[in-house]
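Morning - 3-amino-D-alanine inputs below, output right after.
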Amino acid sequence: NPVNVAIVGATGAVGETMLKVLEERDFPVGELHLLASERSAGAKVVFKGRHLAVKDLATFDPAGVDIALFSAGGDVSKEFAPKFAAAGAVVIDNSSAFRRDADVPLVVAEVNPDALRVRPRGIIANPNCSTMQLMTALAPIHREAGIQRINVATYQSVSGTGRRALEELGRQTAAMLNFQDPKPEVYPVQIAFNVIPQGGDFLDNGYTSEEMKLVWETRKILGDESIQVNPTVVRVPVFYGHSEAVHIETRDKITAARARQLLESAPGVEVVDERRDGGYPTPVTHASGNDPVYVGRIREDISHPRGLSLWVVADNIRKGAALNAVQLAELVIAE
Ligand code: 2RA
């Protein structure tokens, strides 16, 4: 049966990709409502040859919407997700607004799909992009060997910050090559030809909000509050694709060969792990524009008897946000 879909934040980088993924996967869309702020209302979008106009969220009546995909920031989700749920829609929210709520499931399609069946508020939370790819890669290892601790440094692309950040990287790169002032606006300091050890806002414990998402969301998705996570989030001058240097300690020893074997059959994962020049995944050569979570550099930790290191790369807008949201919608309508 046709499914009436609303996309809230339809003109953003994630919203646009949600639309693309719905079309690519031939999701059975009935009515399609593209919603955004009044500023964006009226913009024209094409979906399966249909020309649609973006509508103002503030004046939209959600009655009749079956699935609402939100990616318009936490404030918009907090205000409008409950209204769409009250009108009967299942809300799949890409913001961080509800991820830590005990009565809102936090779901990676290949990791804990059954969790979305219990949604007393009619809201399902989509994990943060960096958590999404990390869990897709680590869940199979956790199930076999029991992960006790994760040290992870992320190298996050500027698309994770949004459209203005994409423009800032391009503009600054050109400015630098023309010996002009890079004039940082979106980030506190220049991002072109630089790296910035900050994602989100600083918290009292010295970590940032983007880093703590990796701690809280990992424990909720894997269902194990004892897992120790030590994250460092770094913004890098890459347009699309987050990369992560991951070092785990497991309860039981797991060899690199066994980890590679597990990952080669893991859903949503593609292993690119050859110990030669270029034998590993990168945002440019593999992840950007593609669906898999790529894993390489798999090796036993020379500094720990039950340690394992690996390199995890994925497109933060696709699997990191839009694709997983659509996969959750597919699971909901298949119930
Ligand atoms: C970032 N994960 O990359 C955030 C976007 N949701 O900044």
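Note: The chain has eight helices and 14 strands.

O.
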